[in-house]
Design brief:
- The chain is α+β, with helices and mostly antiparallel strands and 158 residues long.
- The chain folds into two domains: 36 residues, no CATH class; 110 residues, Elongation Factor Tu (Ef-tu), domain 3.
- The chain has a six-stranded antiparallel β-barrel with strand order 1-6-4-3-7-8. The chain has a two-stranded antiparallel sheet with strand order 2-5.
Amino acid sequence: MDVVALLKSASLLVPEETATAAAAEELRLERSAAWCHWREGETRNGVIRADLTLRAPSDGGRRSPADGAGVLRPMWNIGNSTPAGEPEHNIACIWVEDAPALEPGGRATVRLAPLTPRSWRHLEPGQVITMHETRTVAGTAVVLQADFRHTEMCFGES
């Protein structure tokens, strides 16, 4: 009997509102614990989901898979500008939905956790944003969801 697999299966029966990162950490379920921390951040800052396509290595894209559990922190051109009128790049971590990583040239639905959430509040579904790991574009994403409705109190806005 695989006890860890059994515990993982049992954890799926726990209601979402009572599941905690501490329980996942005690069970040494690192990805599950990271997911709980990620969702906690989304509760505070809002949810941004996008359909991301990475450039292929043959087109100058990355040559190794992008970690899917919030480790990669690329820059994004989300339409903001510097005072001089140049494109401003904003940083956000990536969580790949339904996969541990995103292969070079691959495509997946991702969640973004901005370093400065307020700078991202103008995003709307359908908007195209670009990912940068260097000066060149590393990937292109279409915003699927930009939900900040529960964060108004955090920002002191109405």
